[in-house]
Design a protein that fits this description.
Structural class of chain A: alpha+beta
Largest sheet of chain A: 8 strands, antiparallel
Strand order of the largest sheet of chain A: 1-13-14-15-16-17-18-12
Number of helices of chain A: 9
Radius of gyration of chain A: 22 Å
Number of strands of chain A: 18
Strand content of chain A: 25-35%
CATH superfamily of the largest domain in chain A: Naphthalene 1,2-dioxygenase Alpha Subunit, Chain A, domain 1
Shape of chain A: globular
Oligomer: homotrimer
CATH class of the largest domain in chain A: Alpha Beta
Helix content of chain A: 10-25%
Order of helices and strands of chain A: EHHEEEEEEEEEEHEHHHEEEEEEHHH
Number of domains of chain A: 2
Largest interface: B-C, 30 and 33 residues
Amino acid sequence: MPSFLATAHSYQPGATGLPARCFTSPEMFDQELERLFCEHWVCLGHVAALSAPGDFLTTAWGSESVLVLRDHDGALRAFHNVCRHRGARLCVAESGRLGPTIQCLYHAWTYGLDGALLGAPHMDEVTGFARADYPLHQVALEHCDGLLFINLAAEPPPLAESLAPLPGKFARWNLPLLRRARRLEYTVAANWKLLFENFNECYHCPLVHPGLAKLTPFDSSENDLAEGPILGGFMALAPGRSSLTHSGNRCGALARDLPADDQRRVYFYSIFPNLLLSLHPDYVLLHTVWPQATNRTLVRCDWLFHPDSFEASDFNPDEAVAFWDEVNRQDWRVCELSQLGISSRAYRPGPYSPRESLTAAWDRQYLRAMGE
Amino acid sequence: MPSFLATAHSYQPGATGLPARCFTSPEMFDQELERLFCEHWVCLGHVAALSAPGDFLTTAWGSESVLVLRDHDGALRAFHNVCRHRGARLCVAESGRLGPTIQCLYHAWTYGLDGALLGAPHMDEVTGFARADYPLHQVALEHCDGLLFINLAAEPPPLAESLAPLPGKFARWNLPLLRRARRLEYTVAANWKLLFENFNECYHCPLVHPGLAKLTPFDSSENDLAEGPILGGFMALAPGRSSLTHSGNRCGALARDLPADDQRRVYFYSIFPNLLLSLHPDYVLLHTVWPQATNRTLVRCDWLFHPDSFEASDFNPDEAVAFWDEVNRQDWRVCELSQLGISSRAYRPGPYSPRESLTAAWDRQYLRAMGE
Amino acid sequence: MPSFLATAHSYQPGATGLPARCFTSPEMFDQELERLFCEHWVCLGHVAALSAPGDFLTTAWGSESVLVLRDHDGALRAFHNVCRHRGARLCVAESGRLGPTIQCLYHAWTYGLDGALLGAPHMDEVTGFARADYPLHQVALEHCDGLLFINLAAEPPPLAESLAPLPGKFARWNLPLLRRARRLEYTVAANWKLLFENFNECYHCPLVHPGLAKLTPFDSSENDLAEGPILGGFMALAPGRSSLTHSGNRCGALARDLPADDQRRVYFYSIFPNLLLSLHPDYVLLHTVWPQATNRTLVRCDWLFHPDSFEASDFNPDEAVAFWDEVNRQDWRVCELSQLGISSRAYRPGPYSPRESLTAAWDRQYLRAMGE
């Protein structure tokens, strides 16, 4: 059993925010893409989108695009979305279902769903050309509890080693069974790290989220993971409230076998470097975070429910969507205000309060990962 | 009494324009922001916007935002618009009226109008934290004849030393009494210096401003300040004309006590680095100029009138606004054409004519200020 | 008589695409503008736009703008479109007819159509100023077979030396007589070189251009120029087809004196660095290509017909325009897909097929011209 500690108890005196250049320097930004987004396990979302053979999704960020698919043997695979001939992007849609092969739209080079080059018109006229030399460039893929992760490094460490607390940790919510009810995308005019610093504290909740603060009192947070790549814990639902919706009532089916204690809590975890995971009694919210520039970030937000929910006649996922859409926008706004002020020559990192101990821990994780 | 000299008489043979890199190099642009806009007295506009306690205005340029306010003791103060906690921009509106305090929208840190940190939730739990260590970062502020100036340098020289000719020079127009009738903003696709070079000569008036040239003949200019940070003088109104409006008639009350000679003149001064001041018998025009990029400049243009004007039943400031809006647009267009041509590899600085002696003087001031 | 060789016959084993940085590095892009677009003969289009004295056209790319005109003695001349006084761009329109002089819109400096400075108000007051010292900066101009070329180098080699195969090569189409029926402009989100690599092969035609592939079978290409600055040859029209239109019928008058063989062919040539020339029995298509950024290219596309066509009652150039507009868009799309994939960290130049021998030759020409 994990032990939970109130947020202020993991506070380390003297903690301050990161220096301005972490939020404004294009060179730092490029290093982050390189060291964090290309050498860590990055979450692409939930596996439900790839339930049938041939299902694929693509995820683009920066100059990269990765194609993830379920092949006809049922295996999940990930490839760089780049033809080996002249580099054309292969799959343009964000998701869909492939036939038996992937054909490049330019010159019809054709690959199997295992990445093997099956056909390349007229290349048999070239002495020494062997199709076996030109499979799609593979990308390391692992999935864990229904969450898909890729790693662009050549020889990444196993996911379970990099994100040691992860396997099994969220089993009570039956993540692998869930299905997506809705995706929203946001472009935020703030550095991606400000979103993580924001998510890791509820010190801002009273002023920024008056609605949320009524459902989960801002000082109710307790954490079991307060250092490392996964940070978080729970906040208690106020008496009479049973989930995060505008009404405070559940809008989906209660997760089966969820212990009584957990039915009175919402769990929040940030998973380094790009995932925010919010587990409610009746639904799970994923934010995947995609840096675009020092001051621009794409967020993909998925609402996941148990299949039982979809069969209920009164299922209304919009209650969860509307609630979090409002909370999201409140958060993006203060992140954007921070970005503006941090860009000023007058900015100096200020002191964190004890209520921001996890934000400080996230900064430490970031600095370690950057090798500083 | 200042002595006035015809423009051509201050001409220095051999004067040419500035080299292309001054208008096109991002590195030069950054140096200008640093050396000119952060170490000189920069004009924010007229003090009338801050008449009552609690009144504030914000001015943003580049990555900076400055908050200027009148505190509840009646004193004018300026601060970087940046919270000391996590850097959030404090005041978002361009102007308004504050209550007794300034509260950060993010975590509710609260400041007095003197900049003192009055409240910081839960920070009293932090050993060694003292609110006195976290006041808002102050910005040097001076006002002179109704004009507000700030200086971002740590220990700037007094305004009256930097802009020695300024104090009292425009007393005849009762600047401190004036009130703003209108503000227009323009974004010009040209380097900010082209706007100053343009303002400092009327060699272009016959072709660019046929309307203006009829009201103030382009060769009527005489200057009392022809070297240094303030440059300018007057142009004579043509017979039968009494101000710069489309009709040539005054649209506001004549400045009280304005000598008869000055009732037949319009005075134009550029005040380094960012103010253009145009004094008409019945109104005063301020252009404050805000560099945004090598080839993009924001201009804020304020029309100021004596309080008597606002009480006249036939007061129509739009006659002045419409006239200058047209003149402004004519100027921005030729500035934009210059920017385009100067960016060409063929551009070489050409020779100034005697009618451009003040433009040449402005360039010299610029080069001195840049330390070249 | 030139001898024609099937495309695959000029294939050089081992040929691969260019490295990624050629398509993504801003430094490479700047070098290309410098070494290729400022030191080679660049095509501005067809001379028909300048038939009468005073006719002018301007062409802008990057920071440059060139003014080409026919002077009142009938001579063609080219100048940098930059006033010698303060650098203002002189002619703003893309084309038009000049009066006896060119007057700068800013300070009325006035030039003859031969570039001589004729008037500069008040400059006669400047000791030592001589108008003869300030003519417009000339640009080398040559025309050949109706095509206008400029060269920004100070002392460029003659056009006939740089593009040796050009003079007389297209005499059968009477290029100097043609007139423009239509211009379309496209902005393509791809590096300019991808457009040339695309034009120089029809390996992509079966998949990308099903309509075109029916009219000119993709494997029918034979080339007479397979190395050097001009590359290309012909593709055979399918039986029953007489030109490239949606119907496959001609929409303009057949080029007079076109030999019977050539009436069954469409000729395609790329002329380094910026021209694509497509010669049909009844019309000629020019693509001039203008790099804007590593991943953005402007294309101007002109449809030219014999004057006889314009007099025919049933002349319908839109049949050619509509056909090629579709083909253009199909090409831009795959070029854009290539740009996306080449920007990925996974991209490695792939092997060319024998059907891409001219694309490989174009790459070699590019590398030679870049001095690599």
